[in-house]
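hey so i finally got around to running both of the ones u sent me last week. sorry it took forever, my laptop kept dying halfway thru and i had to restart like 3 times lol. anyway pasting them below in the order u listed, first the sequence line then the structure token line for each. didnt double check formatting much so if smth looks off just lmk and ill redo it

first one:
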Amino acid sequence: MNYLTLSYRGKEYTWEEFNNEHIKFINQLELPDDLLINWGIRDFSVVHDVGYSIAISKFRELYRVIASARYALINAHQKFYDSNVIGVEGDYRNQIWMRSQFLKNSIIWYNSCEDYIFQILWFGFDMHKTVIESRENYLLLLQKAVYGKIIKELEGLKGSSFEVHADRLAIRIQEYREYTSYLRDNLANNLKHRGNLNFSGIEDLRSIRYSAISKEKSKRFDTEWIEPDVIDIDDTINILKDIHIKLLEFARFILDYMDFDNMFEVDDQEQYVMNTIKNKRDYKKIIFD
């Protein structure tokens, strides 16, 4: 006997089905522990290759940003909150508001992830072509680690012995950018620069529409032009779930591409020889002189 049955968006759930759906969702959001590259490799590599050491640190930072985005998305997916923040009285609008707060955080965190990947590439392959001389200098170089500059540097390798590897990397970057264009250009951009996003069920729209027509019968103004974008919370959660999966695939491609394990010599027991490092041309797929 089912003592408790729940209905959500026209679908009936038993309590067990309701919880199992949430668990299934969580299981689709893998936490990429392999991005936590061994801190020993990071710390020893700085003596020989500052760029790769910074890239390893950025991979570890990327892991933490993904974990934050994932946590927020899991909480956005949770359909019901027994919380003293919103209370349980009233209709479901309070629950949508609570979930939307987590979802907005998840949007911002997932959008930030590509910045960390660009920083990994920018410093890892010394695309800035300079020596880091101070913290101020490092922070200035950090600001330049953006999509446009990285693509420009990769295009600059055409005609060199590194062209094939550079093209392969550029293609994967552009594929990820295209896949995440809605996240970046619509969701995150609206949150950061255009006021906000509205969510179906709690949208705050004008009750009266106003439209002005000129003497020439052309429209001079319409309040629809200035209304915020309204998104469906469940559809957007599923979009971010797919982006999470694509992000991990992209990050792992970069991890494999950089081949950190090939940086050090190994002894007869297959242990890293930390005081000996190979020539950069022996382990880096692209070099910027």
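and the second one:
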Amino acid sequence: MFEDIRLPVWFKESYLNEIVAVGIGLKKVARQFVPAEYISIYSNILKKNGFEFVLLTDKNYFYVSRTKEFAKKACQYEINIIMFYNNQCDFDVFCKYVRKLGVLLGFPDCCVEFYLSCWLEQGITLTEKEGKIYSSEPNYAYWSYKNTKKIYKIDFRMNNFHFHSLLSFFPCSYDCKSALDYATVLFKNLSAEQRTVVYEGLRGTFLVLDESNMVIFKDSGDIKRNVVDYNPKKVMFRGMDKLLMDSIKNGNKLELGKNKICVFKDDEVIYEYEQYSGPFLLSFC
């Protein structure tokens, strides 16, 4: 389906799983952000393969379905949800349309309610930087982690941090049975080649600062009391503070404190990084 050489590898691999989920009826609609330069190419690919879609143009969101009706509904639900962000409707209306959209997207009810509970507890955080006000949503990753009983040796199919992810939502916990059932069905319906790619991509130990900043240790030992021994040649980064990133590249062991990260070269501390919200580790295997 994604043979077009004009599409980058990350695009093909990250979007394929969602299209498969729609194709097998695991979800009625896939919601996908498409960079502006790929909108025309992607539109043609979807049409050629018998998928209907609606584009929310100002957000570059595609709502992909087998039927135009479901795609239109999902788009309208999203527009209603955006009204809440703009203070144009109250929280009850927001909840109503989040639940409706969750059904179309195939999200487990418990994970949709988890999403809403994060909003109820935390809401939007406003911060000022250089005279401008910035808003951020709740830290869903942190609360998924806090709800998880076993953070080591989690089933790789529950990893939603990688672009090969089978989950397009934050589970209510990383031991959520409903989310794992969803991911298992999708994984079984991928091609043998894609299953291998997903399996290799989703395994590893993830140091998460927030949804946009994390470190992936692909060849690490077991996590023991928040300590990770790792091979610096097999570490990948998403976002990340440059000093911390460079220190991890030069080290071979990392230890988490309550609100800080310590990087070691053998047994010598080479860098300490303070993190106010508390970084955390998840190990997927």
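quick thing i noticed on the 2nd:
Residues 68-85 form the longest helix (18 residues).
anyway thats it, ttyl
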